[in-house]
Every structure is written in C-alpha cells, then in structure tokens.
Amino acid sequence: MSVRTLSYKALLFFGLCQVGRRGFVSASELREPPKKIAIIGAGIGGTSAAYFLRQDFGPSVKIDVFEAGAVGGRLATEEVEGRSLSVRAEVPSKMAIFDGKELLFEESDWFIVNFLRMLWRYGFNAIRMHMWVEGILEKFMRIYQFQQFSYSFSSVDRMLHAMGGDEFLTLLNQTLEEAMLAHGFSQTFINEIVTPISRVNYGQSVRLHAFAGAVSLAGAESGLWAVDEGNKRVCFGLLYHSKAELISARVTNIALKTRPSKSGANTKFYEVNYVSDSGSAYSLYDVVILATPLHQGLSDISFSGFSPPLPSHFPGRYHQTVTTLVLGRLNISYVDVRRKPSEFFVSDIFTTDGEKLGICSLSSLDPVHITPGYSRPPASETTVWKIFSPEPLTEEQLRTLFVSRERVIEKRWLAYPSYRAPERRPPPFILNDSLYYLSPIEWAASAMETSALSARNVALLAKHRWYKNTAKVDQEGLHSRLRGEL
Fold first, then answer.
1. In this predicted model, what pLDDT tens digit does every residue of 265-278 receive, in sequence order?
2. I need a labelling partner for 283 at 20 to 30 A (CA). Which of 27, 135, 255, 405 fits?
C-alpha cells in the first residue's frame, strides 16, 4: 500500500488531540519551552509532528522542517496526459481475484449477488473476517483516547500492549496465516481472499506478521477516504498550520553538543548539519525529531558525539514496490478469454501467490476531479492503469498485459518494511535526550494513520520529558483507568 488512506476516525484525530493540551500550566511555568526544534522529513509523520509540537509548545518555539525531496514523502500524485490521478471513492468500483489462469471471484453490481457468491464459495469466512478485524480495530482505537488525555509511550511494544495487551504482542510473533488458521478460517479463503489483499496493500504474502496483516485487511474495508488533489495535501495543510519553516535541504549529520548553563551544569543541544542548493550549513536545536527511516537505502544521516554511539542504520529492510502507470488498453484475454473488452468493467484485479506474471494488482484510475456524469470506461477504451509489482515490468510483461500503450511511467518505492514473524524488536521512540524517532511504528504497521499517531506520541513524549512530567509516560492499565474516569 504505497499510498495509504485515512479512516474517518483519523480525520477527527487532529481536532480531538487538541483536547489533550490541558493540565500542563504548572509544569510549563517551571521551565521555558525549547527555543528551536528540528524535524527531519516532511512526510505525513514529519508534518504531523510539526503540527502537534506547535500545539504543545506554543507560538514562541521556532520549528524547522528539513526535506530533501518533495513535501508528502511517500504520498504521491502523478499526472498522465495532464490529468492528476488518484483512487476515488465516488466512482463505483468492482473487484476481481485472479490466480494467473482465471478469475476466481468477481464482484457484481448487486450487493446480494456478491453476498451469495461469497457465501457459496467461502461460507461465513468473510463475515467472520470482518468481525475479527473489527475486534482488533476496536482495541487499536484506544490510542486516540490515550492521546486525548496526553498519555505517551517510549516504545512500540509499550504502546501496543496498552492498546491490546498480550494479544497485540502475540500478533507480532505469528504470521497472518497462522493467526487466521488458529481462528478457524479456511485455507481456501486465506489463499484466495486474504492473500490478494495482503499483496496489494503491502506487496507481501500472508507470511507477514499478523498485526500488519490485520491492518492490511482493515484497509480493504469500506469507509476510507482520499483527499481531493491527493493525500499529500494533508502534509501541506499540516505544515501550513504548524507555522513551521520548510528548509529544502539534505541532512547529513546530527552532532550532540554541550554548553554551560546559568546554573553551572552542562546543557545538551544538537547541531544539525545539512546541504542545500546554497551549500553546506548547520543550525543548533534543543529538540530534534527524526521523521525519516534510518535504514539502508533510505537515509545517509550520520551521528557524532553520542556515547554509546548511535547507528546510522537500524536492522531490517524496506520492501520494494514498483508502481507502473500505463495509459493504454488492457488485454482482457489475459485475465478472461471469454469476455469482450467492451463488457469488462472490473476496476481492481488482485492476484494470488499463483499469479505467474509477477504482478500484485492491476487497477484502473480516475482523475482526481470527477466531472458530473463521469463513469469509469470499459476496458475497450484507453484509460490509465496502475500496476503494483515487486520488480520493474519488462517489455514482454507489458505486451502481455496491454494491447496498446500510449505512455508508461514507472516509480520504484521502498514503501514499507519487509515484515516477518516473529518481528524483530523495533528501535525506541527515544534515541537520546530530546532526540526522537518516528519510524519505529512502521514495524508494527505502515500507514498514514499510524504515522500520524506516532507523530502525536512523539510530540507528547517531547513535551513530557522537556517539562519532566513522567507520570504521563508508559502508564499501564490506561483503558480501565480512563473508562472509570469518564
């Protein structure tokens, strides 16, 4: 899922979190807020962090956001023939499952027909999957209540345990397939429905760990939203409202420095070294937030002056997803030899592990701005198709998929971690005093929503630790406690 959407509950998140700003007047009076904060990365995590830090520390702090590329990070909107493209909820869509030989399942325009088809082939597995995912989401949503009351966590494990107890930690240590088989789901249903969803959302099979798998399945539910003109607009909005300064530069080194304070003790601060079009430079900061993954191929930031030393790269790798946009006419005979192109209106084709061509999914795209009366064209007409694959498509693969092509655009993304079970313990959110890291949450699940939640958590951590309010960090039994207070 290289571009993830926000649930309607997440859209309320930024407003709800402002409620949690109460209760710190006495703490704030004891110490001045930081003068300068640096955020490295202007994706959804970095821009969310800028927004929340502004809310927590007030108008006097200077917030700088460093970004070497485009605002939005891994969120992207592409233009083909002058048209901005994105998946749109307003246009009815139809899904099909393809195993490399035939369509195993195809949605109808009628809900009752889809229900009966699913019931006939998979029994009540689909209904039970919905209930299983909803049960996990219900516990996951507790984090909004915790953050509304300004509680934060120093590690991913502590955060997950507060939300779902041992159950959530167990989900990190078994595959999605193992978890679903243990809950009585059929192997056929896992192979033909769950696997395609996992492949389209994370580019990986059901052997990824079960927590990420459950988030993947939640992404297949209804009630998700896309943002007009592309999800990256959320980042621009957060950056604007944070009143942060965007610095177009590549950060190369973060150095820990000390200086004597008025009390005589040494005070720590950070020297952020960066390279821009104007050349090399550095700035000094009281707090630094790393909102970019510290992994091979994604970051070349080094650290100096730390004891023990901080690694420039953490263990683990990110999974490559190649997005290929093709303006052309689909070769319907590849997926269904019996169907006429003029009668084929399927918009999303998901694939099983048996698909031999090497693609995870194939979807038709609509313009961001939908004009009145617009309807998705049949496969007999030229339109824009999006293909997810683990490797770049060859000319032979493209000839197999399309009878004609007018334009091809390829984007390679290290979009999300390569998940496994048991999952390795992710790094902490706190790398050093007043040096924080957003990306550990991705090793539980990568999504716009989890990045925003991580940003809120780190902003709260930064505030609590700055004002030495440890009572709001790593508290157990929060759900029962807050339920008793309400």
1. 778 899 999 999 99
2. 27
